[in-house]
Amino acid sequence: MANYRWSAELQKSERQSCCSKYRRLVTCVVISGIVSVALAVTFVVVWCLYSDGDAFVANIKGDNYTTADWERIIMESGPLNRGWEKEAEYKLVSSTENVLDLNIAMGAPKQWMWLTKYFDDRLTVQNASSDGVAKINWKLTWKFMDLYERNEVFRLNEAFDGVYGSNLGPATANCTALRPNTLLCEVQHSEIPDWHMSSTIEFYNIGTVVTTHVPYKDDLTAKKYYERLVKAGGVGDQPYKSPDTEEADDFWSMDEWEDDS
Fold first, then answer.
1. I want to staple 85 with a disulfide (CB 3.0 to 4.6 A). Which of 100, 128, 160, 186 is the partner?
2. CATH number of 195's domain
């Protein structure tokens, strides 16, 4: 009889222990769910309220513009000579449809291509140093998340090492001036001879036109159009030019280029 009573009490104790564990488990799940929902709601609110607060120099209302419209408007603003030396920030406002093919060719994951229209694509030029070193930064973000960034530090007509596309391997590049306002950068993959491409950056007073050519991808040519942003403090009428950078007036005078226009 004593053994039976002991067995019943043990079973009752085990049932109470199981119920207590179950209640603790349910409580933890409920608390975790509430915290997760609160974090998700907070993230969505911050995401929706997030604004880059950008202001453009020309303040063009180009929501319905075609790529041809953007090219015309940007070019009509006039050339910005040696724009690769002058501190300024540019933001993508339009591109040709095949820019998705270009992104994939450069190593971007295909599954994210449907989101590209929401990405923030920027080109930033820093002041050239007194010894002629140019610095150009390409950055891709989504709201407050950094997706891709590439820094190019170079001198004209001097080869420099870099990365091909989006981490597709080592590469060698060389940038030359085609016009007073136009920079041509050619890139060759260091390990795959057939992989080579070129980007032409045309600088104008209110923006840039970037044309990328990838011969081994069915002769792919894509264009991007960037509008120049107002700098911090509202200064943005003209990009800042470092006083340490000397103007080569004889070489860069427009008269020397008239025959090629």
1. 128
2. 2.40.128.20
Q: What is the pLDDT of residues 166-200, one digit of tens each?
A: 889 999 999 999 999 999 999 999 999 999 999 99
Whether 123 is covered by a domain: the verdict is yes
Same domain, 132 and 23: no
pTM: 0.73
pLDDT for residue 142 = 81
Q: Structurally, how many domains does the chain consist of? A: 2
- Three-state helix/strand/coil letters over the chain: CHHHHHHHHHHHHHHHHHHHHHHHHHHHHHHHHHHHHHHHHHHHHHHHHCCCCCCECCCCCCCCCCHHHHHHHHHHCCECCCHHHCEEEEEEEEECCCHHHHHHHCCCCHHHHHHHHHCEEEEEEECCCCCCCEEEEEEEEECCEEEEEEEEEECCCCCEEEECCCCCCEEEEEEEEEECCEEEEEEEECCCCCCEEEEEEEEECCEEEEEEEECCCCCEEEEEEEEEECCHHHCCCCCECCCCCCCCHHHHCHHHHHHHC
Q: Is residue 62 part of a domain?
A: no
123 and 8 together in one domain: no
